[in-house]
């Protein structure tokens, strides 16, 4: 698979086409933890937070092993303990939030 070709194809999609591709029926975050995870994903994946629902797959949004490491590191800096393995296993904000350990810094 040519990653560059995939990236160019995705970049050519309109906002409506992109939303249709990545979205399940978008459900907004219900808790502060879900909102924080949404912001972190948006920052790392370089997409608007409001396009990420709690049931959307990290990988369908464009995530990969490198961005998993970045998300896990950013979560750790904000006091949310999530591993790369957690992201691969749980894939959605809703499932990650349910499994996350939050520590007070």
TrEMBL record:
GO terms for MF: ligase activity; phosphopantetheine binding
Database matches in InterPro entries: ACP-like_sf, PP-bd_ACP
Protein keywords: Ligase, Phosphopantetheine, Phosphoprotein
Domain spans labelled Carrier: 28-104
Lineage: superkingdom: Eukaryota
One of the GO BP terms on file: amino acid activation for nonribosomal peptide biosynthetic process
Record bears the keyword DNA damage: no
One Gene Ontology term, aspect cellular component: cytoplasm
Similarity section: Belongs to the NRP synthetase family.
Protein's name according to its UniProt entry: Peptide synthetase
Organism: Epichloe coenophiala (Tall fescue endophyte fungus)
Lineage, top ranks: Eukaryota, Fungi, Dikarya, Ascomycota, Pezizomycotina
């Amino acid at each position: 698979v040519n990653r560059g070709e995939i990236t160019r194809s995705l970049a050519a999609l309109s906002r409506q086409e992109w939303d249709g591709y990545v979205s399940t029926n978008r459900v907004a975050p219900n808790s502060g933890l879900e909102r924080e995870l949404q912001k972190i994903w948006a920052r790392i994946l370089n997409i608007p937070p409001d396009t990420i629902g709690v049931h959307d797959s990290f990988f369908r949004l464009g995530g990969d092993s490198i961005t998993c490491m970045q998300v896990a590191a950013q979560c750790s800096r904000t006091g949310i303990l999530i591993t790369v393995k957690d992201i691969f296993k749980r894939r959605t904000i809703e499932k990650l939030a349910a499994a996350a350990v939050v520590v007070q810094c």
